Sequence to fold (131 residues):
Amino acid sequence: MKKAKTTITGVFSLMLAATSAFAQSGIKQMPAEQRAELLTHRMATSLKLDSAQKEKVSRINLKYAQKMDPVIQGTGSKMSRFKAFRSISSEKEAELKSVLTKEQFAQFQQQQQEMKDELRVRRNSGEPQKN
Fold:
């Protein structure tokens, strides 16, 4: 269970990075449907979604995973890809907010912040970065 959670968290963290991490992780080859399914499973477990919420979250995750494909596959600058990622993520958060309870949404935001912090730590740990 912990290994699966770590793997899913890793995938989500890489999606949040929207930089060269995409090329390094192999996420470019992962179809949007698979990314959305992994994320939905993680969210259903960690946020304790009911069946109606899980169905709605699944649709939202798929919609935005598909919107994210051009960003992931894109060859634009890191900054342009990052801006596109942030825009798509903001839209997705707005939709999720209407599906999740206040407590679930707060927990979702906390999880996102933890993943961002973890990514920053990894970036600053001296690991080589590809540009």
Observations:
- The chain has six helices and no strands.
- Helices lie at 2-17, 21-25, 32-47, 51-73, 78-99, 102-124.
